[in-house]
From TrEMBL:
InterPro entries: Apaf_helical, C-JID, Disease_R_plants, Leu-rich_rpt_3, LRR_At1g61320_AtMIF1, LRR_dom_sf, NB-ARC, P-loop_NTPase. Keywords: Hydrolase, Leucine-rich repeat, NAD, Plant defense, Repeat. Residues 1214-1250 are annotated as: Disordered. Pfam families: C-JID (PF20160), LRR_3 (PF07725), LRR_At1g61320_AtMIF1 (PF23622), NB-ARC (PF00931), TIR (PF01582), WHD_ROQ1 (PF23282). GO terms for biological process: defense response; signal transduction. This is ADP-ribosyl cyclase/cyclic ADP-ribose hydrolase. One of its GO terms (molecular function) is ADP binding. PROSITE patterns: TIR. It catalyses: NAD(+) + H2O = ADP-D-ribose + nicotinamide + H(+). Residues 13-177 form the TIR domain.
């Protein structure tokens, strides 16, 4: 909406250009020539003649600037001498910032840097003008000069010809003024056509370019041409859009007429007479000209509109019409003619009328569209028309070869004729014929009207119902060319059967009934002797095939995948051409299919074929692909011929061995026997010289591979994961093509695999390879990925080559170090070394400049990282968690790409705060030896979470930690040494302008000025300016001093947890137990939202992890009206003593009682608190009253308190107000709990500091 509004504003402005200039420098020279060129291009320019120049800028000029689309600022040597010019510039700059006005600076005999920096002769003039002016005026001029001077423009010193510079400026202005014509704004997708045409025209080129738009009537050629002309015409001095009209003149007279019409359009002169051919060329030679020749055959220039605009008179369909409009758009073929005709016919009709019309639109063609499209069809001769109808009714989308086989080779000529007339399109790569759906509908309609009421008399049958009626009733005549079907496609139909009896189906070549879940039987196909493909995938009700399929001697492909009720196939049949049979998922089929001996592709996965019946497969010769996962055979039949086999997949079969002896397997490319747990030995593969891929995963009985694998010279991938009994592989073998070797989980393998020196991927974890046998890895050059968990090596061999290594994954290894010196590691992306407890040092990584992931988790012997990590500019993830020996990290390192979640938890010897990246968002430093949070933490400006639980040596925390704008949670639980915050002082605001305007800012609510709080409380939406999403955790931090506790309480947070046995006096209303009542000042009636800060005292929490997360329930009531707030997932932690939980919540008080505003009284406000464990099962699907009675759920609350944040009493006669007035009026409500009110102290053995903050004191006046 904003963009649209801005665009409309821009186009409706009064002036195209506003010039700002120094008259004495350029008015009679440069500016006059520029204005003349702009005027010649019909660009409307503001002229300031007659306006009296004075010190304040004239209102007429201010209005003209705002009412212009472009400002041209001509900086000259005396421009800065005029306050008038400088004030114009300020207004221009303001329009640039606020209205998006375009600005073009022109530097006329002046250096742009002098303008930008106010130096040189231009600066001297500026300094003179500034004398006696205010500093504010000067700064506004300086800012405008600097910013406008830095915009893209023209410098006269770079031009040797002023005329060329003026032409360039005029062209730039003209181009900037070009906006899409509203005449074509309603066309869907026209932008893509215009971009394509512009790229073809190569407007920057000096050569002549010609582009043609061809196609049948109604596809939008004229519309596209006019839109292009509208968009480009302003770039050309001469342009013409000429509509071609046929006449009966001779050719020479026609050419003369054309030249007259061209010159009249281009030169804007009427009745130009041309007496010889070639006048246009003479007049326009060396000129840049745009000519559009529109060839319209039907005498009516096409003016089409987008469907929605024609139908609804708006840019998009109204509610409820979107789906209908989409379907009608598709039925129109998405062409302008169709959109215009159908859109106009539907305009003003309601939804029900649309629904009534849709069936007719689906089944037929609109009369106007048919009349237009029929012109092209009627121009064809009889043979061409016949082929057109064949394609429309039967062959759309077929390949040209298929069409020639059906209609004869001579059809090639007809196809070219149809393509030339744009009635079909032939894709160059696939040689596939495509006809637009409107033309296809035209062809079907022509056939339909041949015999409207007797489909049997038509040449083609295309409607499913018509086909079934004609075949079932045998009403077809010799006219029906498609009665004998060529292709029957009825996917996902509801058919239970097709037809009764035997039908004449001699031309039928393809049947697709896949997904017809209710189909129970296939009809007699005795006469379908030319059927080539039969697809019955997913016909789950089909039980068998008819014996008549024995006649299908040309059937090549039979797919019955997923026919779960299929029990049996006809036997003793040999379909000689059948080369593909898919019975996958026929789970009730028990007998081996005996329907062909020539199958090449046989898929039997998921069948119930029994072992004794499997031996029929030896009668099948020529199998190239055999997929039989779960095969029951223990061995292949001895006569089964394998010489043609290319793919063998028998995952999870019962095979114990494959075959005896040596088989001719020269064609075998891939073998997958994964999961064959009974396979004990592997056959001789001497002759499988083309085998590329061998998968033997989880062959748990396999002990070894035969030495014949040395002949597998083309083997690239060998997978043996989970072969738990594999003890060794052949040695002294070099499979030169082997790239991928997976031996993971081969737990009995003791010797290093010596079968290739060229591997790129080697996976070895969970093997039993011994340390002494690992040296062979140094002989493998070109490793890109090494995965070896629990590797026994103490260090990598000296000849180990890591140059090509991309991933090194060796977690839990015995490594003490990796390698000596500096390795060339330019390809290395990932290093996983977690759990390498003996690793003492990380090698020099200076050259690992592409390293993205470094995992050193739980490397307990690691003391430090090398300083070379400063070179890891692409490092995204560095994991050092649990490195208990780590003492220090390199300083002055800023890994800018590092993962924002940085974890150093458990690095129990780490003494200094990590200074490794300023991009961290989540920093975990739990259980480290860090002694302080330094003040430079403010450099990590995006930090949202800081956790330092259990840092027993932590003593000082920089107070600016809490001033980080994005900080949401800090956790210093169990940091018993923390006593104070360095330079602790709350953030304060000195004036209203400092109120944060985003939800990222954080200000202590207690220190915000009253006016800000009052304004924020006026409506709920304004509370977004206060960030209440953070949390502060100080569990078991017993040494917090008074100032630290004060800062915590007065900070802004969602909740905070800290030690304390009684509610601090900071909270105005306090009580023992779980509830309290207190009054509110009468002016609270005006508040839409009341903000509270509340506190509860919780008894110690157990160490059970399930008991740590709690839910606090707050129930408040005003004169019987109540509401409940929940605060979920508050981590109350494992607390050894009583703790305070402090949190914010808002209340929207009722505005009336029983419909009467006058009865509203807040004198009795009651608040109740409950705390429950989030782990309690009682909370699931139970009402709230169950929570109160659950002994596991309820946590004991010893005391509670509330402080109202945003209600202030009315002003007194002096105009001031204070919180103390509120206290004096209503008093501090404090339940005595059976003892005298006095200073309370924490009953914690580690501290003598008072726990009750500000206890016994009057709340401070904030004046």
């Amino acid at each position: 909406m904003a963009a649209s509004s801005s665009s409309s504003r821009s186009q409706s402005r009064r002036y195209d250009v506003f010039p700002s200039f120094s008259g004495e420098d350029v008015r009679k020279s440069f500016l006059s020539h520029l204005l003349k060129e702009l005027n010649r291009r019909l660009i409307v320019t503001f002229i300031d003649n007659g306006i009296e120049r004075s010190r304040p800028i004239a209102p007429e000029l201010l209005s003209a600037i705002r009412d212009s689309r472009i400002s041209i600022v001509v900086f000259s040597k005396n421009y800065a001498s005029s306050t008038w010019c400088l004030n114009e510039l300020i207004e221009i700059h303001k329009c640039y910032e606020e209205l998006g006005q375009m600005v073009i600076p022109v530097f006329y005999d002046v250096d742009p840097s002098h303008v930008s920096k106010q130096t040189g002769e231009f600066g001297n003039a500026f300094d003179e003008t500034c004398k006696g002016k205010t500093e504010d005026d000067k700064q506004r001029w300086v800012r405008a000069l600097a910013e406008v001077a830095n915009m893209a423009g023209e410098d006269s010193r770079n031009w040797c010809d002023e005329a060329n510079m003026i032409e360039t400026i005029a062209n730039d202005v003209s181009n900037k003024l070009i906006t899409p014509s509203s005449d074509f704004g309603d066309f869907v997708g026209i932008e893509a056509h215009l971009e394509t045409l512009q790229s073809m025209l190569c407007l920057e080129s000096e050569e002549a370019r010609m582009v043609g738009i061809v196609g049948p009537s109604g596809i939008g050629k004229s519309s596209i041409a006019r839109a292009l002309f509208s968009q480009l015409s302003s770039r050309f001095h001469h342009r013409a859009f000429v509509s071609y009209k046929r006449t009966n003149r001779d050719d020479y007279g026609m050419k003369l007429s054309w030249e007259e019409q061209f010159l009249s359009e281009i030169l804007c002169q009427k009745e130009i007479k041309v007496f010889h051919v070639g006048a246009v060329e003479q007049r326009l030679k060396h000129k840049k000209v745009l000519i559009v020749l529109d060839d319209v055959d039907d005498l009516e220039l096409l003016k089409t509109l987008m469907f929605s605009r024609c139908t609804f008179g708006q840019n998009s369909p109204p509610d409820g019409f979107m789906k209908l409009a989409g379907e009608v758009s598709n039925l129109s073929g998405n062409l302008p003619l169709g959109l215009n005709v159908l859109g106009s016919s539907l305009r003003g009709k309601d939804k029900e009328e649309w629904m009534e019309l849709l069936p007719r639109l689906r089944n037929g063609l609109d009369g106007k569209i048919e009349k237009t499209l029929r012109v092209s069809y009627d121009e064809l001769d009889g043979k061409d028309q016949e082929v057109f109808l064949y394609i429309a009714c039967l062959l759309n989308g077929q390949k040209t070869g298929y069409i020639k086989n059906l209609l004869g080779d001579s059809v090639d000529i007809v196809l070219r004729i149809l393509a030339d007339k744009s009635l079909i399109r032939i894709t160059p790569a696939l040689k596939t014929v495509h006809m637009h759906n409107l033309l296809q509908k035209l062809g079907k309609e022509i056939v339909r009207v041949e015999s409207i009421y007797n489909p049997g008399n038509r040449r083609f049958l295309v409607d499913t119902k018509d086909i079934c009626d004609v075949i079932t009733e045998n009403t077809g005549t010799e006219n029906v060319l498609a009665e004998i079907l060529v292709k029957l496609t009825m996917e996902n139909s509801k058919l239970e059967k097709l037809w009764e009896g035997v039908q004449p189906l001699r031309s039928l070549k393809k049947i697709r009934l896949d997904g017809s879940t209710k189909l129970k039987e296939i009809p007699n196909l005795s006469n379908a002797i030319n059927l080539e493909k039969l697809n019955l995938w997913g016909c789950v009700s089909l039980v068998t095939l008819p014996s008549s399929i024995r006649n299908l001697n040309k059937l090549r492909k039979l797919s019955m995948e997923g026919c779960t009720k299929l029990v049996v196939l006809p036997t003793d049949i040999n379909l000689g051409c059948l080369d593909y049979l898919n019975l996958s998922g026929c789970s009730r089929l028990k007998s081996f299919p005996r329907i062909s001996r020539n199958i090449s592709g046989l898929i039997l996965d998921g069948t119930a074929i029994e072992e004794e019946d499997s031996f029929y497969m030896e009668n099948i010769s020529g199998v190239t692909k055999l997929d039989w996962n779960g095969c029951p055979m223990r061995c292949f039949p001895p006569k089964f011929r394998l010489e043609n086999l290319v793919y063998l997949t028998m995952r999870g079969s019962k095979l114990e061995k494959l075959w005896e002896g040596i088989q001719t397997l020269s064609n075998l490319v891939r073998m997958d026997l994964s999961g064959c747990e009974n396979l004990k030995e592997f056959p001789d593969l001497s002759k499988a010289t083309n085998l590329d891929h061998l998968e033997l995963n989880d062959c748990k009985s396999l002990v070894m591979l035969p030495s014949s694998i040395r002949n597998l010279k083309k083997l690239t991938r060998l997978e043996m994961q989970g072969c738990t009994k594999l003890k060794f592989l052949p040695t002294d073998v070099n499979l030169e093509s082997l790239e991928y070797l997976d031996l993971r989980g081969c737990s009995s393998l003791r010797s290093f695999p010596r079968i290739s020196r060229n591997m790129s991927v080697l996976l070895l974890h969970e093997t039993a390879i011994e340390d002494k046998d690992c040296f062979f890895i140094g002989n493998i050059s070109g490793l890109t990925e090494l995965v070896w968990r629990d590797c026994p090596m103490k260090y990598m061999p000296s000849n180990f080559c890591a140059e090509h290594l991309v991933e090194l994954n060796m977690p839990g290894s015995k490594l003490e170090k990796l390698w000596e010196g500096v390795q060339s590691l330019g390809s290395l992306r990932k290093m996983y070394l977690s759990g390498c407890e003996k690793l003492k040092e990380v090698p020099d990584l200076s050259k690992a400049t592409n390293l993205e992931y470094l995992d050193l988790n739980n490397c307990k012997s690691l003391i430090m990282l090398p300083s070379s990590i400063r070179n890891l500019k692409k490092l995204d993830d560095l994991n050092l968690k649990g490195c208990t020996g780590l003492e220090v990290l390199p300083n002055d390192v800023n890994l800018v790409s590092i993962n924002p979640y940085f974890n150093l938890s458990g690095c129990s010897r780490l003494r200094s705060f990590p200074q490794i990246s300023t991009s961290i968002i989540h920093l975990s430093l739990d259980h480290t030896a860090i002694t302080e949070v330094p003040s430079w933490i403010e450099n990590i400006s995006g930090l949202t979470t800081l956790t330092m639980k259990g840092c027993m040596k932590l003593k000082n925390i920089a107070s600016n930690s809490f001033k980080l704008k994005r900080l949401l949670m800090v956790d210093f639980s169990d940091c018993e040494g923390v006593a104070a915050f360095n330079d602790a002082s709350p953030v304060t605001c000195t004036n209203d302008s400092q109120l944060p305007m985003t939800d990222e800012a954080s200000f202590p609510l207690g220190m915000l000025p009253k006016k800000i709080l009052t304004e924020c409380a006026k409506n709920c939406e304004s509370h977004s300016c206060l960030n209440l999403t953070s949390c502060l955790k100080f569990h078991n931090c017993f040494n917090l001093d008074r100032d630290a506790r004060k800062l915590i309480l007065q900070s802004n947070f969602a909740y905070a947890v800290l030690p304390g046995g009684e509610v601090p006096a900071y909270f105005w209303h306090r009580a023992c137990g779980t509830s309290l009542s207190f009054p509110l000042p009468k002016n609270s009636l005006s508040q839409n939202v009341l903000q509270f800060k509340a506190c509860i005292v919780l008894e110690p929490v157990t160490d059970s992890p399930e008991d740590r997360s709690a839910k606090i329930r707050v129930c408040w009531s005003f004169k019987g009206k109540s509401n409940i707030h929940y605060f979920y997932n508050i981590d109350v932690g494992s607390c050894n003593v009583d703790h305070l939980v402090v949190f914010h919540y808002n209340v929207c008080p009722p505005k009336e009682v029983d419909g009467h505003l006058s009865d509203l009284d807040y004198s009795d406000v009651k608040i109740e608190f409950e705390c429950h464990s989030n782990a309690c099962s009682c909370q699931k699907n139970r009402p709230d009253h169950y929570l109160k009675t659950c002994p596991v759920s309820v946590k004991k609350i010893k005391g509670c308190g509330v402080r109202l944040l945003n209600v202030f009493p009315s002003k007194d006669c002096s105009g001031t107000s204070s919180e103390t007035e509120y206290d004096q009026q209503y008093g501090e409500s404090d339940t005595e709990c059976g003892r005298s009110k006095k200073r309370m102290r924490m009953s914690v053995r580690t501290s003598e500091e008072p726990s009750n903050l500000l206890c016994g004191q009057t709340v401070a006046n904030t004046k």
